[in-house]
Write a structure and sequence with these properties.
Number of helices: 10
Strand content: under 5%
CATH topology of the domain at 145-214: Recoverin, domain 1
Order of helices and strands: HHHHHHHEHHEH
Shape: elongated
Structural class: mainly alpha
């Protein structure tokens, strides 16, 4: 089996894990407990070398960076980096603002990873075609864009198909509900949580509600801010 086939499910889990990890980092307050006397303190590891960056782009060698000296792909961030508003970025400002220069992880990154990591173009093309075909189906009005309402409709249809499949597999007596005895696997393990009315049976509505729930670790507040393009796309 080619490397692409082996990596594909891992990559999807990796993207989900990265988002959950970022969410936890944002919500966790830093530990302000002073270190014990004599204990060694370690600085967080960063892949961005501030001194090397200044050395490379400080063309007039004055120790600071003007907007013109910044790489073009970062110039739209100048105001965020220049915190004192003096028209130049000092080493301290760059060190504090380095987070703005590093690419943000996004779920859509998995597409770029698929293309870059695969050593089997035929396999990769097949998988990307699956993604492309599905995205075209989402665009119901064929305007070349995926609208929130189109995404919502597609999600509802996917959940309904999943629920239909569960009933086909588990509803042995075809009475339109799943008893505890009929339940298997994930449904059996989480029967109590899914059975919201506590009647000992799972209805289609209860399963649909359970299948539609967003995992707590991945749930993030919606934002109206438009995501910035990846640095390599600028």
């Amino acid at each position: 089996m080619r490397r692409f086939v082996l990596w594909f499910p891992v990559l999807l889990l990796l993207v989900a894990g990265l988002l959950a990890s970022e969410d936890r980092k944002e919500k966790t307050a830093p530990d302000k407990t002073p270190p014990k006397e004599g204990a060694k303190t370690s600085k967080p590891v960063s892949l961005f070398d501030v001194d090397e960056f200044i050395k490379e782009y400080d063309t007039n060698k004055d120790g600071v960076l003007s907007k013109d000296e910044l790489p073009e792909r970062f110039r739209h961030l100048f105001a965020k980096l220049d915190t004192d508003g003096d028209g130049k970025i000092s080493r301290a400002e760059l060190e504090k603002g380095v987070v703005h220069l590093q690419a943000k992880r996004r779920p859509s990154d998995f597409v770029f990873i698929l293309v870059e990591m695969s050593d089997c173009d035929e396999c990769c093309a097949e998988e990307l075609q699956e993604v492309y075909t599905f995205l075209r189906k989402l665009d119901r009005n064929k305007d070349g864009k995926i609208l929130p309402e189109e995404l919502k409709k597609a999600r509802e249809e996917l959940v309904q198909k999943r629920v239909d499949g569960i009933f086909r597999d588990l509803d042995a007596n075809k009475d339109g509900k799943i008893s505890r005895e009929e339940a298997r696997g994930f449904v059996r393990r989480h029967f109590k949580e899914l059975d919201t009315n506590g009647d000992g049976f799972l209805s289609r509505e209860e399963l649909t509600q359970g299948a539609s729930a967003v995992p707590g670790g991945l749930k993030k507040e919606a934002t109206k801010e438009t995501p910035k393009s990846r640095p390599e796309e600028k």
